[in-house]
Structure prediction request, 177 residues.
Amino acid sequence: MDRSLINKVLNEDSYNEYIEKLINIFKLSIKESSIICNLKIDNNNCLIKLSIVNQNGEKEEFNDKTFKCDEVFYKDFLNILIKRFNEEIEVVTKDIVNLDDDSLVTLRLLTKNNDLFSVDGLREDRANYLLSLIDDDFKYTLLLEDEMGIGNLKIFTLIILILIIVMIVFIWFILNK
Prediction:
């Protein structure tokens, strides 16, 4: 059964409410489930599909349609959604791909909890513009066990151990001369 995130028609009056609900869903993300949000733009139509898939395979789906994909939609909805998504959700990978081998491309954002946000059916120039809205300080992170990065701690410890061993060998050579 398909449900809607909002009960109104998606138009200029409901853009902010819809953006807020999408962002809040991604903020509640956990590693035990994946959120997959796809905006499929075809001609002047947009179908927004959002699915939440649990580890046990249960899937909850939400579909909302808008029939007005004009410059107002891009400026007041999509641009703001991408900016807010970048500001409030930890994105670890971003790219543009051509999945259908046509003139339209897909913008993809992958979050630290392995959630996917994609916009399909974009002209390449528009996709590049949306990608440029994501900060240059883009958060590339290794998917490690904690915020500090257990891998960084292990490398630091290894470097200290190597330095200690080099110092011991150096002192041993000096004393045995």
Notes: Residues 93 and 110 are 5 Å apart (CA to CA).
